Amino acid sequence: MNLDDCAAGVTAGSRADLGRAITLVESTAPADRAAARALLARLAPYAGNAHRIGISGVPGAGKSTLIDALGSLLTDRKHRVAVLAVDPSSERTGGSILGDATRMSRLAGRPGAYVRASPSAGARGGTGPATRAAITVVEAAGYDVVLVETVGVGQTEAAVATMVDTFVLLALIGAGDQLQGIKMGTLEFADVVVVNKADGPRVTAGRNTARELSAALHLLPAGADRPAPRVMTCSAAEGTGVAELWEHIADRFRDRTASGELTRRRGEQDVQAMWSSAHAMLADAFTTDARTAARAAALGARVADGSATASDAARRLVRAFLSDSHDNREEQ
Questions:
Q1: What is the tens place of the pLDDT at every residue in 70-97?
Q2: N or C: which end of the chain has fewer CB within 10 A?
């Protein structure tokens, strides 16, 4: 792949080059990583002008249906919408479970929309390893709203809040203990909480759940720089409440932009991304080092038979790896 041609194609609106670029930045092949970094460096000057929105929630809350309805509304209003739908990955095979984004068939067929399903590859926080890079790519392609749908499982789902401007949490009607979301730590990062599927005979139940969640949110620490999330109801299937949800999201985005909070927040996110990338690079170097693998096999056998503790074996592995790295620098 010619990186200059690919970058030019992405910025010119070529969907083929957009797909190739995301495939490259998602690749875990060692040979592709340097090329991915070089491509992102070419695209970065064209990125950063979109509203990044994370959509999270437990399975069954209707995330894909809401994105389909919201994205269709936005394309009707002449926005260009990119959806990065992170598919769960099988723990055994590493393959995606949900397949493509046919769950958003109405939106996917629109010329102003781009829907991409990506494997999470076991990533914590429900976002794939290259989600942040994919955001850069679609922004460089001119999409002004980026919707990131997360896996919706586990207690680290709030990690998506470190890469978006607005975090939308979907809740189930009658989800039970109103403090459950706070215990998971997710509500602390939410900008908007949406009780979805509030339609037909469930309208009243939806309103009751919204009141319970609003009461629970009063228990969260208040902050001048982070107002309490608004709790809303909607029915993504029927389209009711979706326009009101967008107006609230857009108003909050405009306020953050005008106050300078958006610039500050994105700067903090970029620093977090730096540390995340450094950790990932160190972990990759550690796990792919042949000498470390040999030591790990020997120490693992000792841990298994009880002659060494796991913590002591880990300490030995890390110290040996760092020593090898130091020796390699001395030889260069």
A1: 999 999 999 999 999 876 553 443 444 4
A2: C
